[in-house]
Amino acid sequence: MNDRPVSEQSTRIAGAARRFVEFFGEFQDLVDRAGPDRCDFIAGNPQERAIAGYGEALRRHSESDDPTWFAYTMSLPKAQAAAAASLNTLLGTDYRPEDILLTNAAMAGLAACLRAVCDPGDEVVIVSPPHFLYEPILMATGASAVRVRMREDDFDLDVEAIEAAITARTRAIIVNSPHNPTGRIYPASTLTALAQVLTAASERNGRTIYLLSDEAYNRIVFDGRRFESPTLFYAPSFLIYTYGKTLLTPGQRIGYIALRPDIPGREDLIGALTVSQVVHGWSWPNALLQHALGDLERLSIDVPHLQERRDRMVSALRSAGYELHSPEAAFYLLVRSPIEDDDKFVRLLAEREVFTMPGSLLEAPGYFRISLTASDAMIDRALPVFAQAIADAST
Amino acid sequence: MNDRPVSEQSTRIAGAARRFVEFFGEFQDLVDRAGPDRCDFIAGNPQERAIAGYGEALRRHSESDDPTWFAYTMSLPKAQAAAAASLNTLLGTDYRPEDILLTNAAMAGLAACLRAVCDPGDEVVIVSPPHFLYEPILMATGASAVRVRMREDDFDLDVEAIEAAITARTRAIIVNSPHNPTGRIYPASTLTALAQVLTAASERNGRTIYLLSDEAYNRIVFDGRRFESPTLFYAPSFLIYTYGKTLLTPGQRIGYIALRPDIPGREDLIGALTVSQVVHGWSWPNALLQHALGDLERLSIDVPHLQERRDRMVSALRSAGYELHSPEAAFYLLVRSPIEDDDKFVRLLAEREVFTMPGSLLEAPGYFRISLTASDAMIDRALPVFAQAIADAST
User: Could you confirm whether domain A8-51+302-394 is CATH 3.40.50.970?
Assistant: First the structure.
């Protein structure tokens, strides 16, 4: 008798997500039970009121005389046009509105792309440390993850190791630039080399290896740097974006897949992506968010202020004795744990109501992660705690 | 060389959806190109301004001083509480807030349930005519659909045929009451018999057969009838609901899965459903819709007016010579086509800018479907066209 209540495949997928689910469950409870002075650096989540103009944009599009305003909605042409125009301004590209497929933020876009191209037995290369949802999402297609470690010295892609990891079953690689949690923007030289490797391997295999480019942080860039989209270097690419970081509204799910106008197999891919969005439960963004997208595209969190936070924290943490680099982009500081057991150190901080994420959970053992989306008041309160904790650890 | 751009599994799933995708593609174009007097009876889609109070509810919850207002959102407790209270009023049940899992409407709920319980090789019984998305969604789990025809005389479930269709690999049955397109509410006697069959077959198989109850139309009920939820008769049941019909806002995705408090394997199921929602791309409803749910629960389309539309159209169509039954519930009239080729008849109507759905597409050959969500003005204009079309067909 095999009366397990749940499927074997969902048990397998749950296994890949279990440590994160447990961590979030436990730490969300700790945060909720902590006092009003708690400092929450765990995730890229808002700790302050939504940015100015956000609620107004929602309100403005909440009513219309148009009978179709809240009818079944796939990708609305005006939302596609707004996204394409903005992306072209950022990247200097020529995306057309019809190249943009609206999705329920980045994870729904990633899930749709993977389902469109992967079969059971396929392999998908992911760069370690990866986002914790990459492996569960790709496993849902029957594919398996093949990890390639980033270069430890400069956090760049290790293109030689990627080349060595590719097999006849490799169907895709997921690249995340700017990278969570290192903040690394992969340089053009690396992306050129990656494209050469993927092109050669696709030819060798007689089967295209797709590049899935998770660009959630492509507008959260510091020091006037230029963001290089990996998709510009390789035609069989999906550019996957979410507005959840730029607007710091991760509970309002909207983002897109941008297909290069010259992507091979374009019509087949659009058909398969559409079916994927259907079978994931109609994973297009809500009508309201699509109506509002032209307005939302004009908004952003205060990136210069985020950069000031980065500088302040990097400086203060270094002064206190921590080792860390100053990230080029994204939301996170990746800090060397003063003791080898980063999980233990994170728990010591949590006892003082300063909540961070252990690097061992992120495939970055020996580190812990701080999100810069914490408020300035949280940073004020936390810096002395960080200083005390490293002092205690050294004694 | 096998350089197909898309996966074999997505090609297979697309095959199951192809006729619908083609129909909607072609007919949406026809509707868009038609004049302002077009009459759109194709889908359960709004043809008039959103109901009073809907936009106001969205606006009211578009801003808050709460920093977590638009943070990562799974099921918000206040939304769970609002849904549970409303469901208990409808059904006389004792659902607790924690028994409600919010989803991006019914299709996301159905997809999550199927992924949570089905493995490749499993079979899922669906009742023909089924919703056209059931088969593509269940195929995405690796399962296959087994069709059981409804009883043709009264549109009730054919419980004997369901019993005969069950095999050792049967994992679930999807039941839709009130049923699209017949409007049938399955009676308690049928549901009792169904539960007995499912219980016996689960014991015989040593593996639970789940009942997935699609109750999208459970509040769109006519003539003061009582809706019987199939889930009240069988513990291993998922009740799946969407607000998209009751509020007639199918582009605003919110609904839920309700788990009976006594469902066997409850904790394992909740874990698997959570992972399923994650891997479908975070398929929880947007924060805004969850914040607004308490207000939205107080709203509904005008069901008595829908019933008047039903009566008016049934009477007028019968007077014109059409054969049809008066539905107990839901949005649709299922009308016998005056000529055998229902697709041809639907195209004749479409030439006169009256747009309906052919029964052959719906697994109801010889019929065509009319959605009562059309406006009264559309009905005024369409009735003479329907009358002329059957007169022409008889000559």
Answer: no
User: What is the C-alpha to C-alpha distance for residues A280 and B107, in angstroms, rounded to an integer?
Assistant: 8
Interface of B with A in 243-272 (CB under 8 A): 248-253, 264-265, 268-269, 271-272
Distance CA A46, CA A372 (A): 10
Residue B275 has its nearest CB partner, among A10, A56, A67, at: A10
B52-69: pLDDT as tens digits: 999 999 999 999 999 999
Distance CA A112, CA A271 (A): 11
- Residue B1's pLDDT band (cuts 50, 70, 90): very low
Every domain of chain B with CATH number 3.90.1150.10 lies at: 8-51+302-394
Going by their DSSP bridges, the two strands B367-371 and B357-358 should be labelled as antiparallel
Neighbouring CB atoms inside 10 A of A190's CB total 22
3-state secondary structure chain B: CCCCCCCHHHHHHHHHHHHHHHHHHHHHHHHHHCCCCCEECCCCCCCCCCCCCHHHHHHHCCCCCCCCCCCCCCCCHHHHHHHHHHHHHHHCCCCCHHHEEEECHHHHHHHHHHHHHCCCCCEEEEEECCCCCHHHHHHCCCCEEEEEECCCCCCCCCHHHHHHHCCCCEEEEEEECCCCCCCCCCCHHHHHHHHHHHHHHHHHHCCCCEEEEECCCCCCECCCCCCCCHHHHCCCEEEEEEHHHHCCCCCCCCEEEEECCCCCCHHHHHHHHHHHHHHCCCCCCCHHHHHCHHHHCCCCCCHHHHHHHHHHHHHHHHHCCCCECCCCECCEEEEECCCCCHHHHHHHHHHCCEECEEHHHHCCCCEEEEECCCCHHHHHHHHHHHHHHHHHHHC
pLDDT in tens, A111-167: 999 999 999 999 999 999 999 999 999 999 999 999 999 999 999 999 999 999 999
The boundaries of every CATH 3.40.640.10 domain in chain A are 63-296
> What's the whole-number mean pLDDT along residues B315-336?
98
Integer angstrom CA distances of residue A119 from A35, A124, B9, B279? 48, 11, 6, 16
Segment 326-365 of chain A within 8 Å of chain B by CB: none
CATH fit for domain B65-296, picks 3.90.1300.10, 3.20.20.80, 3.40.50.300, 3.40.640.10:
3.40.640.10
pLDDT-derived band of residue A88, with 50, 70 and 90 as boundaries? very high
| β partners of residue B174 | B126, B212
| Residues written for chain B | 395
Q: Measure A131 CA to nearest chain B CA, in Å.
A: 13
- Which regions of chain B carry the CATH code 3.40.640.10? 65-296
Q: pLDDT digits over B170-212, tens only?
A: 999 999 999 999 999 999 999 999 999 999 999 999 999 999 9
What's the pLDDT score for residue B35? 87
Q: Can you give the pLDDT at residue B345?
A: 98
CATH 3.10.129.10 fits A63-296, yes or no: no
In this prediction, residue A2 has a pLDDT band, given cuts at 50, 70 and 90, of low
A92-112 per-position pLDDT tens digit: 999 999 999 999 999 999 999
CB contacts of B137 in chain A (<8 Å) are 278-279, 281
Average pLDDT, integer, range B67-79 = 97
B67 contact residues in A (CB cutoff 8 A): 46-49, 375
Specify the pLDDT at position B292. Answer: 98
Q: Which residue of A has its CA nearest to B56?
A: A62
* pTM summary value: 0.97
Chain B residues within 8 A of A1 when measuring between CB atoms: 206-207
Calculate the average pLDDT of chain A.
97
